[in-house]
Hints:
Structural class: alpha+beta
Radius of gyration: 25 Å
Number of strands: 4
Distance between the termini: 50 Å
Low-confidence stretches: 1-5
Strand order of the largest sheet: 1-2-3-4
Largest sheet: 4 strands, antiparallel
Amino acid sequence: MYVAVKGGERAIENAHGWLAEERRGDPGLAELSVAQIREQLALAVNRVMAEGSLYDPDLAALAIKQARGDLIEAIFLIRAYRTTLPRFGASAPVETGRMACDRRISATFRDVPGGQILGPTFDYTHRLLDFKLAAEGEPPEAPGHPAEPAPAPVPRVAEFLNREGLIEEAPRDDTPPPDLTREPLEMPADRALRLQALARADEGFTLSMAYSTQRGYARNHAFVGELRIGTVPVEMEIPELGFAVEIGEVTLTECETVNQFTGSKTEPAQFTRGYGLVFGQTERKAISMALVDRALRWEELGEDNVGAPAQDAEFVLYHADNIQATGFLEHIKLPHYVDFQSELELVRKLRREAQETREAAE
């Protein structure tokens, strides 16, 4: 912490007090509750949980409230809190095939067993402001809204292509992946580590990288093979019992893309996969993640590197974390008096020398 500023401690305390007043807003209005944020700003809560690497809707809602709606600041709060938590063990890998789907769509097959489930989506809204919400009125419930999620499980769309060998087999590796929350990212990064980094990457950055692949910066033409959102059970192995027990459930968004692949000297032409899995209903992030995942696989698939940003693992992964980016960016607004004075003196010296040179030449 910089302490060279006269009266700095008192100024910081006053800034904190002012911040608290600004966060609260007009005291004549009812204070926003954590429960209201959790239930009515669920997509913001989901993003904070995903990029904060902690599944807890109440804590994410609290962080959003404390951060005055600044989601990156809320993510920072969640990550900082996460470091204080003890770790009792690891859950078993979740089986997304057992997902109870609230939403499940495919852009590759119209008629799929289990059906297309539109679920809660903005896709078909008119993007017009609903002034009934400004009047604090409750909109009418949509007709035919199901009381329960669709029965689970529903088959994966990629299985239909896999029957004819038209899509690569999903690679399986039982090696425990490194823990990015405990160990710093190192290069080269295998796919498990890349996916872990992308899952907690900034949504806007991941979206931009994915969009670049669609515009031709990676030759990455993709179809959404399947996008599904729903709840999956979380199980944990209990050594004393000798079997796994269910300890809860989480809501996840999973996306699997189907991508073109012309084949190589050793592999026949077939489709390949991109994959995304994110906490909560976060489908824009999951699709983006799948596109970037596929672009980063160019080397293992024997494709050419066309110099696209999304193909550069070091560029993507080292710049995707919004907390690291924020810390490095915002530190420059803190006092750098000594550094600047030295550079100021250098510039003055260079100007004096240049002036003396001009005068001597005249």
